[in-house]
């Protein structure tokens, strides 16, 4: 052997014996550069792994006896052992043919507790932190948990929370970990300011935002909690508001949230540029798809020349055309609006171009971020599924539907390239929010006085999208009400809202008799269009009259007959057609809500009649700047007997619910002693104007209203009603003023009305307190 070869062999042997040492500081090479060459070890020696065990260490090594390894293998093994979280220090060295792995074990967490927390319960905080009992104690993980806890408290408006930790050894390498929390005061939003707005005042724009300034009731509404996500949502809400009110050039220059740490208050400032207001110019539909004529699609256009520019109407037109064309056998057709802006006349001409889009299919729909709502509840809001032709307008519609559910604080839908050029992955990012509520409400009824009601409501029961409500109420004179409501919005997998209502109530009349009813309703609602729906229902009701005290001397003959009869039943089938274009169900400013119902009683039971009735209300924003809302409503109904006669409880009643200033059932045919008989025909109409209460912060939700009501109830088919008064169609009317309050407990309304046209025998009630929206 040559001398040079002997020298190289000696160097190689030195490299293996000197070894390679790897520790938490990285890989350290000891010896000559030849040590970087591949090497082989014969055995692995693990030291210091008392609790974890030697095999657990070996399983995380990438080095195996008899297999070549290099420095990168040692480095990867160190990283893997650290990643387990069980070791505070790791060293790997080579000694001869042995790989020596020396570890220092982290302490184990025996128990995790939280001290000082009142606003967030222990079980909620336990879900936030990643340090868990029987897991390793790691300072890096604990510090990350502290940040997660800060974010959890920030989400409820307590950004100044202070969190420290206490670590108590309990022996055998175990510790108890305590997060000590000083929740501090709520972080308020002192002011929300707008800069650059000319068309709309600050008060009107405040109403658009999700975030609200702090007020006396903010601890209930939680609308004054700042978060960057809510700020982004507010920006989008402002854009949509301006785009839908004629300002396509609107943009947000900046939005800033500044925290004054000394006062623990945020000041939020939106700087905007509104641009000029536009109207629609010439509107047309063009098509380059063979077999599709633009002229045939013009009837679907909702943007009319001369109307104020409205981005929502443009979107609805695109969706309507796309649906029509896809239904005609062109699933890949694309609808693109092209705007022709005239800066001199401030008009925007819109041309809807229908062309053959690129062929693309939905590869999959990926749902992320939902911790409570089931995936299928989200997926079913899409009108397309895996394998269908991709249509961007259907994605937009699905986003609108998901936002309307009220299950999520945010909904974001994006698309990604699929496994092939013609495949698209739809990614749905959502964030669940609380959908349950407990309410205590109050109302006023003429017969029962103040009526209190407690209810528990869940709009997303068990994350399945089901609605359930349980309520119980009571008032004076032993008045009692109970109800259970349940709705499955997608019955049998179809867009059918099926449900049932179970109810029971009891009341008395001047201590002369007790009236009680109990029963159930089965119903199913099917959408016809996005705005039109039909509901079919079956109701079975048991009614009982029971005499109290000297009832025979105080009741008229029709009611004496009812009490003598005792128990009655009704079996009713009905259908309702509902048309709804309201922009909001809580505070509508634009749109129509109309419902027409016809029902037949006589499939068993003691009632035999055919009844048709309906109501409609139209809302219109009279002034954007003043947020002045006008509304007109009308109602009518007629009932005819299909058997021998009508019962008192089969006929219509009219009163303060429709014509304020009168008691419930205070208008129409009645006996000389005041007993209400009801009528066969009614008409009513109302006009109202409302505006925010002056000098009151808009976040209080107070609005003032003035109104005028009119109506009539006449006709009577009740047997033995000789001597009845008010069977003619004389008109009743009233004028008044009211205050509505969008309280945390529900919408409350206070009205004061003065009858200006009435009969002597009508029953008047000038002050009225209620909780119902009068759509």
- Strand segment count: 35
Fourth-level CATH superfamily of the largest domain = membrane protein fhac: a member of the omp85/tpsb transporter family
Radius of gyration, in Å, reads: 36 Å
Oligomer state equals single chain
Q: Stretches where pLDDT falls below 50 for ≥5 residues? A: 1-37
Briefly note the CATH topology name of the largest domain: Porin
What structural class should be given to the helix and strand makeup?
alpha+beta
CATH class (first level) name of the largest domain: Mainly Beta
What portion of the residues fall into strands of 2 or more residues?
A: 35-45%
Protein model, in words:
With 775 residues, the chain is of the alpha+beta class. The chain has 6 domains: 3-105, membrane protein fhac (Ubiquitin-like (UB roll)); 108-182, Ubiquitin-like (UB roll), CATH 3.10.20; 188-273, Ubiquitin-like (UB roll) (Roll), CATH 3.10.20.310; 279-356, Roll (Ubiquitin-like (UB roll)), CATH 3.10.20; 361-432, Roll (Ubiquitin-like (UB roll)); 510-770, membrane protein fhac: a member of the omp85/tpsb transporter family (Porin, Beta Barrel), CATH 2.40.160. It contains 12 helices and 35 strands. It has a 16-stranded antiparallel beta sheet with strand order 18-19-20-21-22-23-24-25-26-27-28-30-31-32-33-35. The protein has a 3-stranded mixed beta sheet with strand order 3-5-4. It is globular. The model is unreliable at 1-37 (pLDDT under 50).
């Amino acid at each position: 052997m040559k001398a040079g070869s002997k020298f190289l062999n000696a160097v190689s042997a030195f490299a293996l014996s000197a070894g390679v040492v790897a520790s938490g500081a990285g890989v350290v090479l000891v010896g000559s550069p030849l040590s970087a060459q591949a090497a082989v070890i014969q055995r692995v020696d693990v030291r210091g792994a008392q609790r974890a065990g030697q095999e657990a260490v070996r399983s995380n090594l990438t080095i195996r006896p008899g297999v070549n390894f290099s420095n990168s293998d040692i480095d990867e093994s160190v990283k893997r052992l650290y990643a387990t979280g069980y070791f505070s220090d790791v060293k790997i060295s080579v000694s001869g043919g042995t790989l020596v792995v020396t570890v220092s074990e982290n302490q184990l967490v025996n128990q995790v507790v939280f001290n000082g927390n009142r606003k967030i319960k222990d079980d909620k905080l336990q879900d936030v932190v990643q340090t868990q009992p029987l897991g390793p104690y790691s300072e890096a993980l604990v510090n990350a948990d502290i940040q997660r806890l800060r974010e959890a408290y920030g989400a409820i408006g307590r950004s100044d929370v202070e969190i420290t930790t206490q670590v108590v050894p309990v022996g055998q390498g175990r510790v108890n970990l305590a997060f000590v929390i000083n929740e501090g005061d709520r972080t308020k939003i002192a002011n929300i300011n707008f800069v650059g707005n000319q068309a709309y005042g600050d008060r009107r724009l405040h109403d658009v935002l999700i975030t609200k300034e702090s007020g006396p009731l903010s601890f209930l509404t939680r609308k004054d909690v700042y978060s960057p996500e809510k700020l982004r949502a507010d920006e989008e809400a402002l854009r949509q508001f301006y785009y839908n009110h004629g300002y396509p050039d609107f943009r947000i220059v900046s939005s800033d949230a500044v925290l004054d740490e000394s006062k623990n208050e945020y000041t939020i400032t939106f700087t905007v540029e509104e641009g000029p207001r536009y109207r629609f110019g010439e509107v047309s539909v063009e098509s380059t798809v063979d077999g599709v004529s633009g002229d045939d699609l013009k009837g679907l256009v909702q943007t009319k020349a001369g109307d104020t520019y409205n981005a929502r109407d443009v979107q609805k037109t695109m969706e309507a055309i796309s649906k029509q064309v896809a239904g005609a056998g062109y699933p890949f057709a694309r609808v693109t609006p092209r705007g022709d802006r005239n800066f001199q006349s401030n008009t925007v001409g819109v041309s809807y171009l229908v062309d053959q889009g690129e062929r693309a299919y939905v590869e999959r729909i990926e749902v992320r971020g939902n911790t409570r709502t089931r995936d299928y509840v989200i997926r079913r809001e899409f009108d397309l599924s895996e394998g269908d032709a991709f249509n961007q307008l259907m994605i937009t519609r699905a986003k609108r539907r998901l936002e309307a559910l009220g299950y999520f604080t945010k909904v974001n839908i994006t698309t990604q390239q699929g496994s092939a050029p013609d495949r698209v992955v739809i990614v749905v990012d959502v964030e669940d929010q609380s959908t349950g509520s407990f309410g205590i409400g109050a109302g006023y009824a003429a017969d029962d006085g103040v009526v209190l009601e407690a209810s528990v409501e869940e709009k997303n029961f068990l994350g399945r999208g089901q609605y359930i409500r349980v309520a119980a109420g009571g008032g004076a004179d032993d008045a009692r009400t109970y109800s259970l409501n349940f709705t499955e919005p997608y019955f049998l997998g179809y867009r059918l809202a099926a449900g049932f209502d179970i109810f029971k109530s009891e009341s008395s009349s001047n201590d002369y008799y007790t009236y009680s009813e109990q029963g159930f309703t089965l119903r199913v609602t099917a959408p016809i269009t996005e705005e039109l729906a039909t509901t079919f229902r079956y109701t079975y009701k048991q009614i009982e009259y029971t005499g109290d005290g000297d009832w025979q001397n105080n009741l008229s003959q029709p009611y004496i007959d009812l009490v003598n009869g005792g128990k009655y039943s009704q079996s009713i089938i009905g259908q309702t057609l509902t048309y709804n274009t309201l922009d909001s169900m809580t505070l509508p400013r634009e749109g129509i809500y109309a419902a027409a119902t016809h029902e037949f009683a006589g499939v068993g039971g003691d009632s035999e009649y055919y009844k048709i009735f309906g109501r409609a209300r139209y809302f219109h924003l009279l002034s954007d700047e003043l947020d002045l809302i006008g509304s007109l409503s009308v109602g009518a109904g007629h009932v005819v007997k299909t058997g021998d006669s009508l019962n008192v409880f089969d006929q219509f009643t009219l009163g303060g619910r429709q014509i304020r200033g009168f008691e419930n059932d205070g208008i129409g045919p009645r006996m000389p002693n005041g007993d209400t008989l009801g009528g066969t025909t009614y008409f009513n109409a109302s006009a109202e104007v409302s505006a925010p209460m002056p000098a009151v912060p808009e976040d209080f939700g107070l609005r003032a209203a003035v109104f005028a009501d009119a109506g009539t109830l006449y006709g009577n088919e009740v047997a033995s009603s000789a001597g009845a008064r008010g069977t003619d169609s004389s008109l009743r009317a009233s004028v008044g003023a009211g205050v509505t309050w969008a309280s945390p407990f529900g919408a409350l309304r206070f009205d004061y009305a003065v009858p200006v046209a009435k009969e002597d025998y009508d029953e008047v009630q000038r002050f009225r307190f209620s909780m119902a929206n009068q759509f």
